[in-house]
Amino acid sequence: MQFTNRIAYNAWMIRRQLLPTLAAALADYPAVALLGARQVGKTTLARQIRDARSAVYLDIERPSDRQKLTDPEAYLSLHSQRLVILDEVQHMPELFPVLRSLIDEGRRAGQTTGRFLILGSATGELLRQSGESLAGRVAYLELPPLQAAELTESQQNTLWLRGGFPNSLLASSDAQSMDWRQNLISTYLERELPGYGSRLPAQTLRRLWTMLAHLQGCLLDVSQLAKGLMIDAKTVHRYLDMLCDLMLLRKLPPWHSNLGKRLVKSPKVYVRDSGLLHALLGLASHDALLAHPVVGNSWEGFVIETLLNAAPREAQVGFYRSSNGAEIDVVIDAPGQGLMAIEVKRGVTAKPRRGFYSACEDLKPGQKFLVHGGADGEAYPVGDGVMAVSLRGLAQRLAPGPIPHRNAPA
Questions:
Q1: Contacts of 217 (CB under 8 A, 6+ apart)
Q2: If you compute the radius of gyration of the chain from its CA atoms, what whole number of angstroms results?
């Protein structure tokens, strides 16, 4: 699908589901950390908050804004009555003790909420830095790429092909979208990863990322990756963790239970954004995607990412696979909904595999679903207690209310 009227789908016009949750968190906590990959829309969302609240906005990567923070305590104290937004704050870790001091001083003066909104694109580093200084004072929210529930049903296939980064999704053509994603990949390889301590050549990092794309939805075998790249396994582990911290890669853990069965212990690996996956594999059109062997695992990853972004933060998630062939694509234990077993199929008329039913006999989930790629509509049974449902339909079941935030431990 081509967007014939880009203005109508301007990123400012797409209401992000996280917006009311972000506003609520600012009303509850003195600081809120908004996490998300680069170019995912954090700054756009923050500017909406800025305009609504006349907040102060500082981009730590902009020299003129860093200059204002030469004496951060003095500058931030001048704006003690306003919300201050700090973008890419992980590049200035010395700010966090200052924020803690100002928050505590404000609390004594009766200013208990809405002091700082901090944005970052590396979860591990930002969580470590802020957790050490702002424990009990900050709530964490993650902004994913644009989701199916934030768009119309007719845009789902475009979202799957191009991914949810706004500039990619809203491009005037598939070719322009691909160019944008290739440039984003180059930016990560040549700037972002070296900035987080990468010592591998960009070409080696691209090979690793491309290998992971070919392994979409497969069990992670670090030793094989290390052998293919001719580097040691510890180095591969470090770079996998780095990609996870940058919210580019997801390691879906195996579901463990005391069933006395031999279960798979390795995680499955997914490039989180389907558009980046397709760019790494050179798949610029739907025809190219549908003709590629990755198509099934690409759809599976797209579904899993959608569902996990919709599920409550407290939900336990994973996949189930035993040595005898019993397998469930996604297992979700969500508060108030119980254990859910989910089979992912692209075809509307597809049926669950025999291994799915065997795995359900092992786990005895309270709800069983088959997610298909068809249009939204009423869920219908396909036998043995399994309900067929569209992706958007199941995502709405998982997230009927506001998205919860996570506060740092006191």
A1: 268, 269, 270, 296, 297, 300, 301
A2: 22
200 to 177, 203, 253: CA distances (angstroms): 28, 8, 27
Residue 133 and residue 372: Cα distance in Å, rounded?
Answer: 45
Tell me the CA distances in angstroms from 316 to 122, 253, 337, one per residue in order: 22, 10, 12
DSSP string of 247-294, one letter each residue: TSEEEEPBP--SSSS-B--SPEEEESSHHHHHHHTT--SHHHHHTSTT
The secondary structure of 17-71 as a DSSP string is THHHHHHHHHHH-SEEEEE--TTSSHHHHHHHHHHHHT-EEEETTSHHHHHHTSS
Strands of the sheet with 116-120, listed across from one edge: 56-59, 84-87, 116-120, 31-35, 138-142, 406-407
Distances (CA, A) of 407 to 22, 31, 99, 144: 13, 10, 16, 18
Cβ 269 vs Cβ 218: under 8 Å: yes
What is the chain's pLDDT, residue by residue, as a tens digit (410 residues)?
344 344 334 544 678 889 889 999 999 999 999 999 989 999 999 999 999 999 999 999 899 999 999 999 999 999 999 999 999 887 888 899 999 999 999 999 998 999 999 998 866 666 666 666 788 899 999 999 999 988 888 899 999 999 999 999 999 999 999 999 999 999 999 888 887 777 888 899 999 999 999 999 999 999 999 999 999 999 999 999 989 988 999 999 999 876 656 677 899 999 999 999 999 999 999 999 999 999 999 999 999 999 999 998 889 999 999 888 899 999 999 988 899 999 999 988 888 999 999 999 999 999 999 999 888 888 899 988 999 999 999 998 887 554 444 444 33
The C-alpha torsion from 90 through 95 and 99 to 105, rounded to 10°, is 170
At residue 199, what are phi and psi to the nearest 5 degrees? -115, 0
